[in-house]
Design brief:
With 411 residues, the protein is an alpha/beta fold. Helices cover 25% and strands 27% of the residues.
Length: 411
């Protein structure tokens, strides 16, 4: 590959993916002009604390200190929103009319939480959770007292439920599927987490959908369910998924289908434009089709590959997709991608509140592992997924057989 280090690069999006690709470009020898555009007023920051610690003083955690951007000649423009991409003259247009030319453009715009239809205008008690300002609004609403209703039993909703219960706030989770985490976790993990939350006072309603919000003016007083039941509350957290940014990719006429279509390194249908992170749909090693991977490790790995491709360098090997979640005292780490034909093998750690659910395909290879307070199982699962070797499922389920012996036997 021919090194390409002096081009002008513009990055739209100042989250984990955007900030990572900017830093990696500089660290890898990029010398040209580098601009990062973000629509928030804050410096790029860690997003996991928003749901895991939304009520604490450690919520706002910058990814890098303010001086990093000046020291590395990164033109960081906060409170700036890109509204159009003119591919004919390789220019980005901002909301204030500013135009920025690029040789290479990186879209790292992430995704936006889906709103709940029928939300009263002007209310501050119905919130989503994507930004620091969202976390502050949630905290302020809960500070006024009353119960919390969470619409959607995904990871964000369950993390917030755990934090709220630790503050002795009454919480009801409303999930329209027949179990929480139905699209992203095994039935075994869903059941375990549901029981764990209920034992700690969370009301979990599954197979129920929202008919409407009950409000007194702009103040929400309850959530009416499809059977007429009203869940009383003064705060509603909406966690019903997120949609990738569509307006900018459409303005550039990029190939788009529930995300910008890219190759494994982030290249789009336009040779001058890359897309990384939540906004991208890309191939994933050892899996058919294209996937949108919504996690911090996935965004960082995609940023690494895009930075190498932009500079004409060889990328590192693919990393097994993974993410984590904290709920009460449980530390969840999940690696790989689930498949419908996988068999779930449960491995418990004797004497500890720890368990791992291994997803094993009919051929005998592990494709995912859900480790609950079981870090050794997580690291072992990642190795087995990466190697693609067949495992002895009986040995995997037997906690008396050491993990290292299972890995060695699998080759």
């Amino acid at each position: 590959m021919t090194p390409n280090t002096d081009q002008s690069v513009v990055i739209i999006g100042a989250g984990h993916a955007g900030s990572s690709v900017a830093a990696l470009l500089r660290q890898s020898g990029h010398t040209g002009h580098l601009t990062m555009v973000g629509d928030e007023q804050h410096l790029p920051y860690h997003r996991p604390p928003l749901s895991k610690k939304f009520d604490g003083p450690t919520v706002q955690q910058p990814l890098r200190p303010a001086e990093f951007y000046a020291d590395n000649r990164i033109d960081l423009r906060t409170q700036s929103r890109a509204v159009a991409i003119r591919t004919a003259d390789t220019t980005v247009v901002l909301a204030d009319g500013t135009e920025i030319a690029y040789d290479t453009l990186v879209l790292a715009t992430g995704s936006t939480p889906r709103p709940l239809p029928g939300t009263p205008e002007g209310t501050s008690s119905v919130v989503t959770l994507r930004t620091i300002d969202d976390a502050d609004a949630l905290n302020q609403s809960l500070g006024r007292g009353g119960d919390l209703a969470i619409v959607g039993g995904g990871y964000v909703g369950m993390e917030v439920a755990a934090v709220a219960r630790s503050r002795d706030i009454r919480v009801t989770v409303i999930e329209r599927e027949d179990r929480i985490l139905a699209r992203v976790a095994s039935p075994e993990l869903s059941t375990m987490l549901t029981d764990y939350h209920r034992e700690r006072g969370t009301t979990v309603l599954t197979g129920r959908s929202v008919a409407r919000l009950v409000a007194d003016g702009a103040d929400v007083t309850g959530v009416e369910l499809d059977d007429g039941t009203v869940v009383g509350c003064r705060t509603v957290l909406v966690g019903i998924g997120a949609a990738p940014d569509e307006q900018l990719p459409r303005s550039a006429e990029l190939e788009y289908d529930d995300g910008v279509i890219t190759d494994e390194d982030g290249r789009t249908s336009d040779p001058h434009i890359f897309a990384i992170g939540d906004v991208a749909r890309r191939p994933v090693k050892n899996h058919h089709g294209l996937r949108r991977l919504e996690s911090i490790p996935a965004a960082t790995e995609h940023a690494k590959r895009a930075a190498a491709a932009i500079l004409g360098q060889e990328p590192d090997d693919h990393e097994v997709p993974w993410f984590w979640s904290d709920q009460f005292d449980l530390k969840l780490k999940i690696a790989g991608l689930t498949t419908p034909d996988a068999r779930i093998i449960t491995r418990r750690t004797p004497g500890k509140n720890a368990v791992a659910f291994y997803h094993v395909q009919p051929a005998g290879n592990v494709v995912a592992v859900e480790a609950v307070s079981a870090p050794s199982d997580f690291s072992t699962g990642k190795k087995l997924i990466s190697n693609g070797s067949r495992v002895d499922v009986e040995a995997l389920a037997d906690p008396t057989i050491k993990l290292r012996d299972i890995v060695a036997q699998a080759g």
